[in-house]
Amino acid sequence: MHDYHATVFQDGTATFMARIVDFYGAPIKQSDVDSITYSVYLLNEGKPESRTVNPFHSNYELNVSDVLFDQLQTNPHWTEDDIGYNFCWTLLGSRRPSPFELAGRHYLVEIKLVAKRIPFLVRYRLFVL
Questions:
Q1: What is the residue range of 27's domain?
Q2: What is the dihedral of CA 81, 22, 87, 121, to 10 degrees?
Q3: d(CA 26, CA 105)
Q4: Model-level pTM?
Q5: What digits encode the pLDDT tens for the residues 64-109?
Q6: How many domains does the chain have?
Q7: What is the CATH number of the domain that holds 85?
Q8: What DSSP string runs through 68-115?
């Protein structure tokens, strides 16, 4: 599993992008996906394996057609490669309570896709300024 790393401002907005592929390396399409949910965790600085879920941002369902594209996309915000992404979602910092309320801490955002009953996880580790 590949974790993406980024920095976000306290109470800030964060946009998450990824190219999500199946076991054969083909990009996942909307029709393949049964559900997409996200959860935000505050990481314990002393114990990296320990995390506390934000109850207001836990297992929250996203609309598949709003965040997943059938064709790979490219734009200046996608800097991983020239191939493109098929997942893009923005978590608004203005959504209260804030998903990133503590500056100087690390958070984990997990996106869980279920495609043909198979779960896929995309994880983002964020440091909050």
A1: 3-128
A2: -110
A3: 35
A4: 0.89
A5: 999 999 999 999 999 989 999 999 999 987 766 889 999 999 999 9
A6: 1
A7: 2.60.40
A8: EEEEEE--TT--S-SS-EEEEEEE-TTSSSPSS--TT-EEEEEEEEEE
